[in-house]
Structures are given as C-alpha cells and as structure tokens.
Design goal:
There is one protein chain. Helix content is 28%, strand content 31%. With 281 residues, the chain is α+β, with helices and mostly antiparallel strands. The protein has two domains: 121 residues, Aminopeptidase (3-Layer(aba) Sandwich); 154 residues, Aminopeptidase. Strand 9 and strand 10 form a beta hairpin. Helix 7 packs across helix 8. 28% of the residues are buried.
Length: 281
C-alpha cells in the first residue's frame, strides 16, 4: 500500500532517497512543498518551488520511478500538493512528451506558451544587396540618455510578453532587472532601429563559444514589415562574423515570432509552458 508523506525542505537530505534527489529540478532553498510516495521504499515525489524572477506561479515537478507508473501515484501526489498552494501552478515540458502533456491537461493545466530554441547558420541567412540594407545604430553608439530609454523599453517589452504566463517580480528594482537582462549583452552587435526609434531593437549576447552569438530580446514599435527588414539587415551584417546564431522564440512575443518566420527551424520540438489557474485546482 502506498502512503504519501510531506517532508520539510530542511530535512531533505535525511528524508529524501538519494536516487530521487538526483532528479530534483530546483535548488533546495527555493522549495515550498515536497510530498513523497512510499511503498516499502520511496517510489516517487512531487515538489513545488518559487522562481525568484517570476514568483506569482509555483513551479511544479512530479517524478515516479518507472516500475510504479500508470498506477495513479502522480495524480495522488499532485492532488496533495494542490491542497496547499495559494497561486497558479506552472510546468514546462517538451511538446513531444505526450505522457506529460496528457497528465497536465488531465489535471487542469492549459497551454500558455510555446518556445522554440534552435541555431541558425550563415547558410540560412540570405545575402542582401546594398539597396536592401538599413543603416545600423549600435547600442555602443548610443548616448547615456538614449541607453536609459532603450533599457526601459526592453524592460517594458519583457514585462508585457510574460504577463499572460508568469508575471515578473514587481518587488525587484529596475537596476536588479537590468543586471539580469543585460548580463553578457554584446553592446557592439545589439542595435536600435534609429536614434529616433529606440523602442525597436535587437539585442545579442556573448556565449562561451566565440563563434556563436545569441539573439536575445527583440521588439518593434509599430511597423512589423520594417522590423523584418531591420532584422534581415542585422543578420546579413553579422553572418560572416559568426558560425551560428542562437534563437529562443516565445509564442507570446510578436517580435520574436517575426524571426521564427524569417528563419524557420527544422524539426525542432517546442518547450511548452502549461499553467493551472488556482480556480481549476
């Protein structure tokens, strides 16, 4: 007979089986709840934890050892976790993990965001004629006042694209957010549309691989078509400087979806965020 026991995060090392602990998806200090399933030995557990940057949903993870799956143990665990939560639950899974997707949907979770993460090579980036190119304004060439404007636009863009899924932490200061969002920013290869339009931008980030550049946050003010030309100009400008470009595209971000259309992925499985509102728990 299976029993379900809640344990305190302070007792994690003593009370959670070491083999199960290896699958723990979060730092122990962020844990809010943990429930362990026992049948002679520990056969599974469920945990909720807080994401410091997006604390208004509780992240959730459930693991059951293979020999005990399809015995409703996961359902028993999630039902016990739900009794104590006070805000929505969130879990992100690969779209092709049909078992996980089915489990989440059966327990009141709804798809909120798809995420494509993939690389683009120079061969996938068309050459541009001089007539097709726009003049590029690097972040490195902006004045201090202009940098303040574009940083604020970046922060507002981040807020708006995350609001419907998992809102950003309102208790963090602007400077704290800037420290997170601008970490490893490549000022030289990040661009704004013009000195007159600082809210249309493409950010890029250094990686440990000097031959690869990460395309980060992107935004346009009004004109999607002009933004597409802006992006293709940047990519055409950079294609001979790097061997690959990393893209992470969220379906909640209209500007990022322009990149998805311009440089479509090949056989990439999306990483999808599911949320269960408190009322559905």
């Amino acid at each position: 007979m299976t029993e379900y026991v809640a344990i305190a995060k302070e007792a994690l090392d003593e009370q959670l089986d070491p083999l199960l602990k290896q699958t723990l998806p979060c730092r122990p200090e962020t844990i809010k709840q943990i429930v362990v399933a026992k049948n002679k030995t520990q056969i599974g557990y469920g945990v909720t934890w807080e994401n410091r940057y997006h604390p208004y949903c509780d992240e959730i993870f459930i693991y059951v050892v293979p020999d005990f799956r399809r015995e409703h143990i996961g359902s028993e665990i999630i039902d016990r976790l739900k009794k104590e939560v006070t805000q929505p639950l969130m879990r992100s899974v690969d779209a092709d993990n049909k078992a996980a997707v089915g489990f989440l949907r059966a327990h009141g979770f709804a798809l909120k965001r798809r995420c494509w993460e993939y690389d683009v090579t120079p061969e996938q980036i068309p050459d541009l004629s001089d007539a097709d190119k726009l003049p590029l304004v690097s972040w490195a060439d902006l004045s201090p006042d202009e940098l303040v404007t574009v940083k604020n636009a970046l922060l507002e863009h981040y807020r708006s694209t995350h609001e419907s899924v998992s809102p950003m932490n309102a208790d963090m200061t602007k400077e704290e957010w800037f420290n997170v969002m601008l970490d490893h920013l490549d000022m030289t290869y990040s661009y704004v549309y013009s000195h007159d339009d600082l809210t249309t931008f493409v950010t890029t980030y250094d990686t440990t691989d000097k031959k690869k550049l990460e395309i980060g946050y992107v935004n346009f003010k009004e004109d999607e078509e002009a933004f597409g030309v802006f992006v293709t100009t940047i990519m055409g400008h950079l294609k001979n400087r790097f061997e690959s470009f990393g893209l992470e595209i969220d379906s909640t971000d209209a500007a990022a979806m322009v990149l998805l259309e311009l440089y479509p992925p090949v056989a990439v499985v999306t990483f999808d965020a599911y949320v269960a509102a408190k009322s559905s728990q």
